[in-house]
């Protein structure tokens, strides 16, 4: 039996297409609204986390500043008493970690006499034969003891002096990729040594515990509390044969701070000028 129903006319077909377009449009609107809602929620959560992180960072900086001020005061007092200074430092020329909690913030502080290391800026003085000979002996010992450490100490000293001398032009730096220029001034931080011709990252990692960059040339060396590697390099007598009264806390002390707030860790590394208590370097990173 044949279906004799008439075929839809043009008007019916047009209405059906319009309903289909309307349905698709509605689905697109719902999808876009859902995407916008999810995006707004994610953005709100991100803004909230940023605000919480910023607040925690600000709180950490305030606590770090307070502990730093207390450490600077303690350093000033210890510098006046050689016996107290000697008792403060362990065999690494550091104090034991001081751990406390302030208003729910876990704080750990540790001091280090930077004069127990070789001041790289002392090598800029070609008349400082003691520092130069000690550095050369240290590097040669490390060359023998470490397969990954192979440096020419005389080459490093020469490159360091050229790096800090504004009257010396070394095109080796301009030929690097990317090119850069020497600072033409003493080192600001010891890691700046990584940029100097002849140095590499593996060797610096081994050398780093024995060197520093103090903000002046001609600083003293704490021979009493120096680590064994430097005692051998400078051919020093046993500490028992040295008079503590002839030594004491150096002028520059490093303050390493570690703070934990809401499961977030914050680090600060400062260098304090002990006689004045002034902070000469402050970096928001581990020492």
Give the strand tally: 7
Strand proportion:
15-25%
Biggest sheet statistics: 5 strands, antiparallel
Write the H/E string, N to C: HHEEEHHHEHEEE
Radius of gyration (CA) equals 32 Å
Low-confidence residue ranges: none
- Whole-number average pLDDT? 82
Give the CA-CA distance, first to last residue: 94 Å
Distinct helical segment count: 6
Q: Give the helix proportion (percent range).
A: 40-55%
Instruction: Output the strand order for the largest sheet.
Output: 1-2-5-6-7
Q: Assign an overall shape.
A: extended
- Derived from helix and strand composition plus strand pairing, the structural class reads alpha+beta
Give structural attributes.
287 residues, alpha+beta, Ribonucleotide Reductase Protein R1, domain 1
Explain the overall architecture.
Among the domains are: 82-116 and 220-287, no CATH class; 119-209, Orthogonal Bundle (Ribonucleotide Reductase Protein R1, domain 1), CATH 1.10.40. Helices cover 41% and strands 15% of the residues. The protein has six helices and seven strands, in the order H-H-E-E-E-H-H-H-E-H-E-E-E. The protein has helices at 10-79, 82-88, 129-145, 153-164, 201-207, 228-233; strands at residues 98-102, 105-113, 118-119, 211-212, 252-261, 264-273, 278-283. The strands form two sheets. Strands 1-2-5-6-7 form a five-stranded antiparallel sheet, with helices on one face. It has a two-stranded parallel ribbon with strand order 3-4. Strand 6 (264-273) and strand 7 (278-283) form a beta hairpin. The chain is extended, with a radius of gyration of 32 Å.
């Amino acid at each position: 039996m044949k279906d004799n129903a008439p075929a839809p006319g043009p008007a019916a077909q047009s209405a059906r297409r319009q309903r289909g377009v309307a349905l698709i449009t509605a689905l697109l609107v719902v999808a876009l609204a859902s995407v916008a809602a999810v995006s707004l929620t994610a953005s709100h959560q991100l803004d909230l986390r940023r605000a919480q992180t910023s607040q925690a960072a600000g709180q950490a900086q305030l606590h770090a500043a307070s502990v730093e001020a207390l450490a600077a005061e303690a350093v000033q007092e210890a510098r006046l008493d050689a016996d107290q200074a000697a008792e403060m430092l362990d065999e690494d020329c550091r104090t034991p970690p001081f751990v406390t909690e302030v208003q729910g913030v876990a704080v750990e502080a540790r001091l280090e006499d930077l004069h127990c290391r070789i001041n790289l800026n002392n090598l800029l003085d070609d008349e400082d034969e003691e520092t130069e000979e000690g550095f050369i002996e240290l590097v040669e010992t490390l060359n023998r003891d470490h397969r990954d450490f192979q440096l020419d100490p005389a080459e490093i000293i020469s490159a360091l002096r050229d790096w800090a001398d504004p009257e010396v032009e070394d095109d080796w730096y301009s030929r690097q990729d990317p090119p850069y220029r020497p600072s033409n001034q003493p080192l600001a931080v010891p890691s700046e040594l990584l940029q100097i011709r002849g140095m590499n990252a593996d060797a610096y990692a081994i050398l780093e515990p024995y060197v520093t960059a103090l903000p002046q040339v001609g600083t003293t060396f704490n021979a009493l509390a120096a680590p064994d590697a430097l005692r051998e390099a400078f051919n020093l007598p046993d500490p028992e044969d040295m008079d503590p009264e002839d030594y004491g806390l150096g002028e520059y002390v490093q303050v390493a701070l570690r703070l934990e707030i809401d499961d977030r860790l914050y680090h600060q590394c400062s260098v304090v000028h002990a006689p004045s208590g002034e902070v000469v370097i402050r970096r928001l990173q581990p020492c």
